[in-house]
Amino acid sequence: MKYDFAVIGANGMQGKIASRDLLERGYSVLLCALDIFGIENLLASHQGKAAYARIDLRDIRTLRDTLIASPAETIVNCAMDDYNIDVTRLALELGMNYLDLDAMIPMMEEQEKLHSEFERKGIIAILGCGSTPGINNVMVSHVAPRFDTIHTVDLGFAWNSNMEVFIPPFSIDAIMYEFAEPAFIYRNGEYVKVFPTDPTGIEHEYMGIGKQATRYTEHTEHHSIVNFLKDKGIKNVAVYSSFPDHSHQVISTLLDTGFLSKEHITVDGQKVRPLEAAIEILRRRPMPKGYTEKENLWVKVYGQKDGKEHVEEMDCMAYTIPGWEDATCNVDTGFPISIGAQMIKNKEIDSTGVFSPEAIIPPEPFFKHLGDHQLEIYDNGKRIN
Predict the structure, then answer these.
(1) CATH superfamily membership of 3-127
(2) How would you list the strands of the sheet with 3-8, edge to edge?
């Protein structure tokens, strides 16, 4: 059977959201993962539309053989970004469209080098099609035409929950990276190394959240938005993350005690990485009854219009959605990659090559789809979807 989509990492936090959304909207999906934990219900309730394939990205040949035997039009890559370049090259080899959630900038640059080859094959890759990067990038492209020049883009996320318990707000490997790694932000026209613990000087009152401490965060927006706005004179791009105190404390403890290390250790004669063990433990943690979250994805753009200083602000608000309680506000990452894949399928995006979201996703239809998924887009405080 040929599938509409092959979701890689289908039983992960974002993979489950994207897979369920695609299936509930009538598409056929090949669910690719190491095991079926967490997706048993999707397989049971969508027989004839959903199938499971065991894959291990440490052996890319496994995935290659799987996709040759059960081809799909588009790869929706929701797995750890360690293997993004391998999966992108595989999509190119097999003539499949491709989307992912994010990667480190050096890997993204390697993916971008494949642009002309994707063009020749008549296929498309969209890199970083989640919340941020993803929704935030498209909000930047939405307001960019309102400026003659743009000198600064600040963007990020803030979230909170109704209970002070630790539920991973997104993939724990991504959290580890954002908390531990220095960020190369764009400042005064140059890339500057900063650390997550450096003072940011940012005091935002986040829509729906209130004030939270901010951290510099290494993200691909530092690369893609600089490229996108180079003709506007961009000088500064920085990405910030904000966590509630109770979550911040738990993550810091996990990092400090080595539970999120990628270094192998030996346990009972078996080599394991603490990070992989932590991922498996945390994804099995039950959701407390009545637990809800809300998240604000925000963008502030500064520049000039008609010789005067000009500022534009956009926000996306995400909440725990009834019927999607286990997904919490991660819907704002899992839904966009599903929406992007559907827009390619339905020719709402009909280009070829390798792109970041701000360069290729049309804002208005994208925002409408987000609204259909109960994600709220605000343009200078006014909801537009």
Answers:
(1) NAD(P)-binding Rossmann-like Domain (3.40.50.720)
(2) 50-54, 29-33, 3-8, 72-77, 97-100, 124-126, 353-355
Cα separations in angstroms, 114 against 83, 312, 326, 360, 383: 15, 34, 37, 16, 37
- Give the count of beta carbons closer than 10 Å to the beta carbon of residue 268: 5
Mapped onto helix, strand or coil, the DSSP state of residue 200 is: coil
Of the chain, the end-to-end C-alpha distance in Å amounts to 37
Residue in this structure with the two tokens 């600064």, named with its chain if needed = 152
Under 8 Å between Cβ of 101 and 130: yes
Q: What digits encode the pLDDT tens for the residues 76-107? A: 999 988 899 999 999 999 999 999 999 899 99
Containing H/E element for 337? helix 331-345
What is the value of pTM for the model shown? 0.94
For 154, what's the count of Cα atoms within 13 Å in the CB-facing half-sphere? Answer: 15
Count CA atoms closer than 13 A to 27's CA, side-chain side: 25
Residue 218 has what DSSP assignment? -
Q: Where are the domains of the chain?
A: 3-127, 135-329+366-383
Q: Are 340 and 357 in contact (CB under 8 A)?
A: yes
Largest CA distance in the chain: 69
Pairing of β 293-305 and β 149-161: antiparallel
Cα torsion for 8, 119, 338, 32, to the nearest 10°? -10
What does the alpha-carbon distance between residue 187 and residue 28 come to, in Å, rounded to a whole number? 45
Rounded to 5 degrees, what angle do the CA atoms 230, 235, 239 make? 100
Q: What is the pLDDT of residues 216-269, one digit of tens each?
A: 999 999 999 999 999 999 999 999 999 999 988 998 899 889 988 888 999 889
Name the DSSP class of 385: -
Closest to 21 measured CA to CA, from 306, 377, 340, 378:
340
> Per CATH, the architecture of 135-329+366-383 is what?
2-Layer Sandwich (3.30)
